[in-house]
Amino acid sequence: MVVLWCQKVAKGIKQRRIKAMRTYDEALSQYIAECDIIADQCSEEGYPSHGSNYELRVEAIQADYPEIFDPYYYDDDPDWD
Predict the structure, then answer these.
(1) Phi/psi class of residue 46: alpha, beta or left (left: φ > 0; alpha: ψ in -120 to 50)?
(2) How far is CA 16 from the centre of its chain?
(3) Does pTM top 0.70 for this prediction?
(4) What's the burial of 38, exposed, middle or buried (CB within 10 Å: 0-12/13-18/19+)?
């Protein structure tokens, strides 16, 4: 009984994730656009457009793009044993 309930919950989570999930290409284009904006902001503030300040800001937004940076994001069958 518990196994069937767990399977049903897992299936529901997977279906919701698929509906909400943006594709890898969409995420990559959004990430590149955001990196370009950060480079422009750094230049306007007098920092090098791809210096350490840029790297810190880009590193901070990487958590918003698990499709690109999380190696287990597309793992449909996690090993929970």
Answers:
(1) left
(2) 16
(3) no
(4) buried
Residue 42 CB neighbours (<10 A)? 21
Record the tokens describing residue 60, joined without a space. Answer: 């901070």
Alpha carbon 54 to chain centroid, angstroms: 19
Region 6-15: mean pLDDT is 54
CA distance from start to end of the chain: 19
The answer to whether 28 and 74 have CB atoms below 8 angstroms apart is: no
Q: Specify the DSSP class assigned to residue 22.
A: P
For the chain, the domains span 22-69
Q: In this structure, how many other beta carbons lie within 10 angstroms of the beta carbon of residue 47?
A: 15
CA distance 78 to 17: 14
